[in-house]
Amino acid sequence: MRWYTSLLYALLRAVSILPLRGWQALGAALGWLFWILPSRKRAIVRTNLAYVRPRDASRDALARACLIETGKSLLEVFGIWTRIGRTLGAVREVRGGDLFDAALRSGKGLILCAPHLGSWEVANYWVGARTPFATFYTQPRYPQLELLLRRLREGGASIQFPIDDSGVRRVFRHLGAGGVVSIMPDHVPRSGGLVAPFFNVPALTMTLLPRLLKRTQANVLMLFVERLPEAAGFVIHFRETPAALRDPDLPTACAALNASVEKCVEIAFTQYQWNYKRFKPRPGSDLPDIYRMPHPMGTAG
């Protein structure tokens, strides 16, 4: 790393000494600002909830709670990065850990479906402490930023595959050799996706996961980390997926994938990244751009 990148790393390392409780409190304050001010995040959250919870009379309160959790997600990472021991010590419970252990013992490979939910950086360290694993990544525009993020996340994912055809081929080989890989199943694909319902709203959905399952014998589990209230720590959740996720019919498999994500989200609804444009259209998807359409709760455009 260059000197300025090393300096930034040292500064982030220094500020990470602030307890997680402090970072989450600052994050909650940031979330309140997102709510009070006419922020883009507030507009996107309100748009998503208008479609996902159309008959919920308390949507404003729900949107505010979602933004507070968004703020926590953004800032708590500064208390997690480089503080592996402290982070793992904050894990209060692991639900479904037996599923994870059994999948590792099988030697068939394991796909961890980790949606935009809760505190992913905690899962990154927890899984990394037990087995080498790989993730997909989008290469940052600035190489020094990539080096910084890799240094901050040391102890987590040991392999990173680019999100392109070469990366997908490497993932097939990695799983075939019994490796572990994590995938964000609710990421809006840039190409090759199918439209399937997500909370009864048409959403462009990845086909990569069904394709991986069709061509490999890998196990698959849902994974997310729930943030407990009042900075009480974290709960790691591993959950089984339905058999329909392996259906050779891609629309059926994609619908099952979204249903699996929904069940995770319902456990910690406000911790989902509702500020993410999950229903964003892509050219050829024939989906409307709901973030530019007027509706009862305002627009996100």
Care to describe what's here?
The protein contains eleven helices and nine strands. The chain has helices at residues 3-15, 20-36, 40-52, 59-80, 84-89, 97-106, 120-128, 143-152, 165-176, 208-215, 250-267, and strands at 91-95, 110-113, 134-137, 159-162, 180-183, 194-198, 201-205, 219-227, 234-240. It has a seven-stranded mixed sheet with strand order 1-9-8-2-5-3-4, with helices on both faces. Helix 1 packs parallel to helix 8, helix 2 packs antiparallel against helix 4 and helix 3 (40-52) packs across helix 4. The protein is globular, with a radius of gyration of 19 Å. The model is unreliable at 296-301 (pLDDT under 50).
Structural class assignment = alpha/beta
Mean pLDDT metric: 89
Major β-sheet annotation: 7 strands, mixed
Order of helices and strands: HHHHHEHEHEHEHEEEHEEH
Strand order of the largest sheet: 1-9-8-2-5-3-4
* Rg result: 19 Å
- What ranges have pLDDT less than 50 throughout 5 or more consecutive residues? 296-301
Helix content: 40-55%
Task: Estimate what percentage of residues fall within beta strands.
Answer: 15-25%
Discrete helix count: 11
Oligomer: single chain
Q: First CA to last CA: what distance?
A: 38 Å
Number of strands: 9
Coarse shape: globular
Q: What is the number of independent domains?
A: 1
